[in-house]
Structure to design on (135 residues):
């Protein structure tokens, strides 16, 4: 071993999140997106994804709420995931009023399907009992 190789830093691999048993749509198309939210931005209105979504907050804080789960704040360096399918994604907005927040999401969808569809007001009303109590 040369002195040059001995001083080269070793790579580091760290698993940030693991989701066992995730169902991936057959022939899924995978898209990775970068979302930048200005301070106080509420994010995308309630919607759903046809397949799972995995994310990592790069900067700031994101308010995250899925149907049946209490809303929570995900901070820079933390991950999130959602199963997709019938589950409504209520919130993905910036929790900081004066600072930008940013996250990366990888979304899986059957070929030719959009990775996001909006939920109507009528459906939100019909499923309001599935939403966790909010603070």
């Amino acid at each position: 071993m040369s002195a040059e190789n001995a001083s080269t830093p070793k790579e580091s691999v760290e698993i940030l999140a693991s989701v066992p048993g995730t169902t991936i749509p057959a022939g899924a198309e995978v898209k990775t997106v970068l979302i930048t939210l200005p301070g106080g931005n509420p994010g995308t209105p309630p919607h759903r994804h046809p397949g799972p979504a995995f994310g990592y907050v790069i900067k700031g804080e994101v308010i995250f709420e899925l149907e049946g789960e209490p809303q929570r704040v995900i901070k820079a360096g933390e991950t999130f995931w959602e199963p997709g399918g019938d589950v409504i994604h209520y919130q993905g907005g910036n929790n900081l009023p004066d600072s930008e927040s940013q996250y990366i999401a990888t979304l899986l969808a059957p070929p030719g399907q959009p990775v996001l569809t909006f939920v109507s007001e009528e459906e939100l009303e019909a499923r309001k009992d599935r939403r966790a109590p909010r603070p």
The longest strand covers residues 29-37. The beta strands are 29-37, 47-48, 53-59, 61-66, 72-75, 79-82, 89-94, 101-109, 117-118.
